[in-house]
Amino acid sequence: MIDLATALAQRPVVLDGGLGTLLEARGNDVTSALWSARVLRDEPDEVRAAHAEFAAAGAEVVITASYQLGYGGAIPDAEVEALLRRSVSVAREAADVVVAASVGPVGALRADGSEYTGAYGLTLDELREAHRRRLHVVAESGADVLAVETIPSLLEVEALALELDGLGVPAFVSVSADSTGFAPGGSRAEALRVAASVSSVLAVGVNCCAPGSVLSALGEAPGIPLLAYPNTGERWDAATRTWHGGAAALADDAPSWVAAGARLVGGCCRSTPADVAAIAAAVG
């Protein structure tokens, strides 16, 4: 297994792809509000096997199936801690790779599309409280790094930065680049700056966005290692829980992301082990 901080200073590092996408392709039901967390709870061997597929395709970092897991969500609070820890252990058992514990936004727990708007109606202090307990559990779970991902607004980034500061665990922070929560001019750039100001944050960047949004967002980022793992270009309809549109070949654009400073490169929703293998070949 690589030392992530050292590797980021030297070369691009390949992330995995869409875990829920692969689980679905393997025949698992991910249509509920729990998404991949349902499979983690009921069929953890499937999650382990999916992580192993991504690692075999060239992923050096796998992101756990904990994106939809949090307190106050669809899974009873009494079960959340054990499942958060399970998400790390099954990833660890899958392959000798860096394990990144996924920490999704409040919108991921609501499963109503608000992870692309940040329109929660919560204050800064309420957002800090919403994330605090889960962050402390995953910080003690044995993960190598925290993957704070798909954050849709400056306010939620600010809340997470305050909670990460002093937690003492390395993290990378990724914003939802196309979120309407960044509509105020300069707010996305400010969110990336705020995230990068936390001493334990190794990289900042974007995920769960259109591939065409990556370069403009990276151009707003501060001078630390950057990351990029967009969707394949298809559009998610939260009301019908379906995808629409055509898919792009992420590997075609990956070298330009690396040239712009990205050091963690992979795919998000709809990306497959084949996409990861192509990205690894394109940036290796």
Automatic annotation (TrEMBL):
Question: Which residues belong to any copy of the Hcy-binding domain?
Answer: 1-283
- What gene does this protein come from? mmuM
Question: Which of UniProt's keywords are assigned here?
Answer: Metal-binding, Methyltransferase, Transferase, Zinc
The cofactor note reads: Binds 1 zinc ion per subunit.
The signal peptide, as residue positions, is: none
For this entry, the protein name equals Homocysteine S-methyltransferase
Q: Name one GO biological process term.
A: methylation
The UniProt entry, under InterPro entries, shows: BHMT-like, HCY_dom, HCY_dom_sf, Hcy_S-methyltransferase
Organism listed in the record: Microbacterium testaceum (Aureobacterium testaceum)
Chain positions recorded as Zn(2+) binding sites: C208, C268, C269
- Which GO molecular function, any one, fits this protein according to its record? zinc ion binding
Q: Which cofactor does it need?
A: Zn(2+)
